[in-house]
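Sequence in, structure out. Go.
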Amino acid sequence: MKKLRVLLVDDEIMIREGFKRLFDWEAHDCQVVGEAADGMEALAQIDSLRPDLVIMDINIPIMNGLKVIQLSRMKHPGTAFVIVSGYDDFSYCREALRLQITDYILKPVNYEEFGTCIDNLKISLFEQRVSAEPEQQEERTITGITRYLQEHLAEEVSLSVLADQFHLNPQYISQLFKSEIGVGFLTYLTNIRMEKAKKLLLSTSLSIADVAEQSGYADYRVFTKVFKKSEGSTPSQFRRDFLETREGEQDNRI
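Output:
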């Protein structure tokens, strides 16, 4: 079996360095391919690196680990997640179990137990891949469709547009989203548009209208309504809250 590609996610650099230096990844046929320090960075790294396994803390900035897992599941259902947290809290454990994570490990990490977790995970992933071989064609199809959506997010996209692009029946594509990703087409499209919008709001000074347009909404009023329903605040408030939080963190460091 090929080496597992691993992404480390923790806002504390010493924790990430500890994982890299204190655990023998090579002995367990694993390779650390990337790191992330917050939830938004983790989502971007998962999208670009396509790791087999994500080792993640829950309490990370911008977006907590459980939300990252929930969103990642939509696009990368085959990615495995192991939560490493300092919180021995039943509500966290219950939510993690609902998201079907592979394991929930408390800090400080016992690396011998962690190695057993990794070895068991490798066996499980191998068995899943063997059983999934007949479904590989559908997986390639949905991967192509989701990639197309990411690349054409600012455009008007519908099941009919996808059907013409991929020479498939719209109903078949709709069923693919439910069977391969676990959510309907419109839910998936709205989620990735909201993620694009949040990235633009936090990393650029674009106007709300421009953010709306680049996220696939010609009418910024519709965009604002959808954003508020999804995130619980307007785009302007979301940006303002982030900037105030960041300024507060900077003041605390001074």
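Check: Residues 7 and 110 are 19 Å apart (CA to CA). The mean pLDDT is 86.
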